[in-house]
């Protein structure tokens, strides 16, 4: 096979494809990018058996063919090439020769025969949203998935469509993050659990532009994300997701409204006295027009009083400061509201329109 | 004791002082910054027993006194304070109370009694150079010191003054880096070996501005760097440094002149095929008007031909690519010249005025 392409086009193709190259695998072929030169098309494919990526690269094809090349080495070579036209050739023994300017590289490739091609999936209806929206919905919830594999289903996010509303949910047993997005049309109900790793990779591939579009297709076992030139297909996580509606409630006894930035910097200061793995809660003492935050550990003590607006009862309640910080960082509103019932019941941070809802369980503490 | 200072002034003082806080020590007091409030002066002192730093911080002193505070915790607290006036107080039990805006911190301090104060050193004559010059001289040589402690003296740099010339030398047994700087006046001969770690820390404290001045004092066992508000004192390394003049020569059989950037990118591409700890040389084949660079390893092969100007014999010679790259990165000239004698003799990269000289030993290779 033989093709020419610019360094820039190759590099953007490789940087997308490499996201589905596993870092550890017992199948060396999966560490490769499969390069296919078709009559008028150059395609890079990768597959870590959970997620697969297929991306098209602008190229002049001189001879069609297929070869697999070790992904990290190929990516490094492309990155270090001069900014010129690249000529890529491979022979019948899969020896690869890359020329660019006066530089020549020879590396060994592999046959594509053992490569695990992407499954072909029946798709019909698709949900279209802006890349900006999908990217923020993922980034604003993904920190709430469980990171250990004890409960497989908690390592994914629920994607649920009812009518024209997409709801994305992540939870880890201590907190829940929910984002709601209005779609342009209505759809039949969909309820699937997408692996967290897939979503992290997708959010890095998405442009983040409001005007760029991503199409999402659902099948029984797969989800497919399509952006111009690139298709990402991922397995879904089997099993029934939690009944989230049962966990959230709109009753509250106390509502506190506070400047998000001031609240965030204050908790950030408090975390100075919390060491990794240490379970020291931050204690929030809510009274009229102010909230006192304090933390005490072997390392020292800190307290600070914030101006707030309060409705309802006074309350003293303790939280893992990191959970509050994660939620506050995901919100862009200038002021936020906390809804509380009692020191043993979950706290909600949510906006009027419920575009976001963060539920955080309180922590017991002794004074 | 009690003082007030701005967050910014405290932060810049802490960021300098913390450089002499050891990361591992059996003496916990050395992990502290000693804070001294004198009548009209606030001083932060740190000491890792090889290097000590004393820096003055702008402050309003309300009550004089001394307290030692764990450096990393103090630094983190200061960094996270709001941008306001900070009030620092300690009582007779060394309990420290820091207030800033509405935030209050309580941490435990220590008596300063066990603190290893900086040695007082007799100094008279001092060498004055710009912070920019000292910073670049260090950065452009420090990569050539030895990193293992087998030969203590190789972990430092020679600072040698003869007349009005300061020469700084680093070597590790495979290469030598030399920078020469003209001073404003002449001095009696000085020849001392300064620890590499001291120089690395100093280069981070220096501003890098041509107009800012650093004064350097020498004593039998110490070197002192003085910049406005800050004094850094370091032990010297004992022992006789190598006779560098014996190792360098101005004879050559071949002189090659090449564009520095082109040469550097080419070697950077070649290093793709060199794994950490692997001793694959890059082979330079020098002929008329061009130089072919090639490398071959289990990972693949690369070659590239560069346009050059050549005087003298053709030659084929091998080098550790990293040593050439380190030297090229330290040079800012657009073109550089290599001076070669034969494939077993060292190669020199140097400018006409000898402001820099890099000596690199070649590597044997089999073709």
Provide the descriptors you would attach to this structure in a database record:
homodimer, 367 residues, alpha+beta, DNA Polymerase III, Chain A, domain 2, eight-stranded antiparallel beta sheet, seven-stranded antiparallel beta sheet, elongated
Question: Could you describe the 3D structure shown?
Answer:
In chain A, helix 3 crosses helix 4 (196-205). The N and C termini of chain A lie far apart (73 Å). By secondary structure, chain A is of the alpha+beta class. In chain A, a hairpin with a 6-residue loop joins strand 22 (335-340) and strand 23. Chain A has three domains: 2-108, DNA Polymerase III, subunit A, domain 2 (DNA Polymerase III, Chain A, domain 2), CATH 3.10.150; 126-246, DNA Polymerase III, Chain A, domain 2; 254-360, DNA Polymerase III, subunit A, domain 2 (DNA Polymerase III, Chain A, domain 2, Roll), CATH 3.10.150.10. Chain A contains six helices and 24 strands. In chain A, the strands form four sheets. Chain A has an eight-stranded antiparallel beta sheet. Chain A is elongated. The interface between A and B is medium-sized, with 27 and 27 residues. Strand 19 of chain A pairs antiparallel with strand 9 of chain B, so a sheet runs across the interface.
């Amino acid at each position: 096979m033989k093709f020419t392409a610019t360094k820039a086009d190759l590099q953007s193709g490789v940087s997308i494809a490499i996201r589905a190259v596993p870092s550890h695998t017992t199948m060396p072929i999966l560490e490769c990018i499969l390069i296919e030169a078709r009559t008028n098309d150059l395609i890079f494919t990768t597959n870590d058996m959970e997620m697969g990526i297929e991306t098209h690269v602008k190229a002049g094809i001189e001879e069609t063919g297929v070869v697999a090349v070790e992904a990290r080495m190929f990516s490094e070579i492309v990155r270090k090439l001069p900014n010129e036209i690249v000529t890529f050739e491979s022979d019948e023994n899969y020896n690869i020769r890359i020329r660019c300017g006066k530089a020549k590289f020879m590396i060994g490739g592999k046959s594509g025969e053992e490569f695990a091609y992407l499954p072909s999936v029946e798709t019909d209806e698709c949900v279209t949203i802006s890349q900006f929206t999908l990217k923020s919905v993922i980034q604003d919830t993904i920190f709430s998935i469980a990171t250990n594999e004890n409960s497989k289903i908690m390592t994914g996010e629920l994607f649920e469509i009812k009518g024209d509303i997409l709801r994305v949910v992540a939870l880890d047993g201590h907190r829940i993050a929910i984002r709601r997005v209005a779609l342009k049309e209505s759809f039949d109900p969909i309820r699937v659990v997408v692996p967290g790793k897939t979503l992290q990779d997708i959010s890095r591939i998405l442009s983040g532009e409001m005007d760029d579009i991503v199409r999402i297709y659902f099948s029984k076992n797969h989800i497919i994300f399509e952006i111009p030139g690139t298709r990402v297909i991922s397995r879904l996580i089997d099993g029934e997701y939690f009944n989230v509606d049962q966990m959230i409630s709109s009753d509250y006894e106390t509502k506190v409204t506070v400047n998000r930035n001031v609240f965030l910097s204050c908790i950030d200061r408090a975390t100075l006295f919390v060491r990794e793995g240490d379970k020291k809660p931050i204690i929030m003492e809510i009274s009229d027009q102010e909230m006192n935050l304090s933390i005490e550990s072997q390392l020292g003590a800190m307290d600070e009083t914030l101006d707030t607006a309060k409705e309802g009862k006074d309350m003293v309640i303790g939280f893992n400061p990191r959970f509050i910080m994660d939620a506050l960082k995901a919100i862009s509103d200038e002021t936020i509201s906390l809804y509380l019932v009692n020191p043993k019941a979950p706290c909600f941070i949510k906006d009027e329109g419920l575009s976001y809802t963060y539920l955080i369980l309180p922590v017991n503490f002794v004074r």
